[in-house]
Amino acid sequence: MSPRRRRTALWVSLVAAGVSVAVVLVTGFVVPGFFLRHDRSPGTAAASSQVPSTGGPTTSRTPFSRSDPGQLQAARQVTEEFLCCLNANAIDGPGGAKAMGCPGSESLLGGTLLAVAPPTQLAIPTQGEVRFRDPVIEVDVAGVTNQRAVTGYVRLQPWQDHQPCVRILVVR
Questions:
Q1: Within this chain, do residues 89 and 23 fall inside the same structural domain, yes or no?
Q2: Which of 42, 99, 128, 138 has the fewest CB atoms inside 10 Å of its own CB, making it the most exposed?
Q3: Where is this region: Disordered (predicted)?
Q4: Cα–Cα distance for residue pair 71/137, rounded to 1 Å
């Protein structure tokens, strides 16, 4: 093989290896985050949130379990509070929607919130579903943002001994 072909093959191999490492890092630490520990606390950002309660039932403080309806109930309540923040255009600040985000997902959540612009009226639809998508919980949402009708979901990360935190908002 000529030196020029060897050099081209080397560069192709290096680029392929770099792309592979990037894919593993993104899928491992961002979405779906299978490298992340699921038993750590959500940190001070979610704990210091001063979002008004919707008056819903007390959330379960037990470890994550598929058979625990308290986790689904807690995810629904956190989603309602998150949507209240969005509807009030309270994105930033200690009581804003970003403060309800999971540790490490600030940039991901912040990017998805760019699709939300006043006037916003998002809610969990009457026929909306709250479902487990291992290792996360998804809650259906629908409504109007930026003067257009949208549907989508809020993806939450369940935490042991804490309320779920918001990982991402998807509207289309």
A1: no
A2: 128
A3: 42-71
A4: 9
Dihedrals φ, ψ of 170, to 5°? -120, 120
DSSP state of 63: P
- Tokens read off for 107: 């940039």
Are both 130 and 98 inside the same structural domain?
A: yes
- Give yes or no: residues 85 and 18 share one domain: no
Name the residue among 102, 144, 146 with its Cα closest to residue 125. Answer: 144
pTM: predicted TM-score of the whole model, two decimal places: 0.62
pLDDT-derived band of residue 35, with 50, 70 and 90 as boundaries? low
Nearest to 40 by CA among 160, 165, 149: 160
The three-state (H, E, C) secondary structure of 65-122, written as one string:
CCCCHHHHHHHHHHHHHHHHHHHCCCCCCCCCHHHHECCCCHHHHHHHHHHCCCCEEE
Residues 64 and 115 in one domain: yes
| Residues 20 and 76 reside in one and the same domain | no
pLDDT in tens, 99-130: 899 888 878 888 888 888 888 999 999 988 99
Confidence band of 34 (pLDDT split at 50, 70, 90): low
Whether residues 23 and 44 fall in one domain: no
3-class SS at 133?
strand
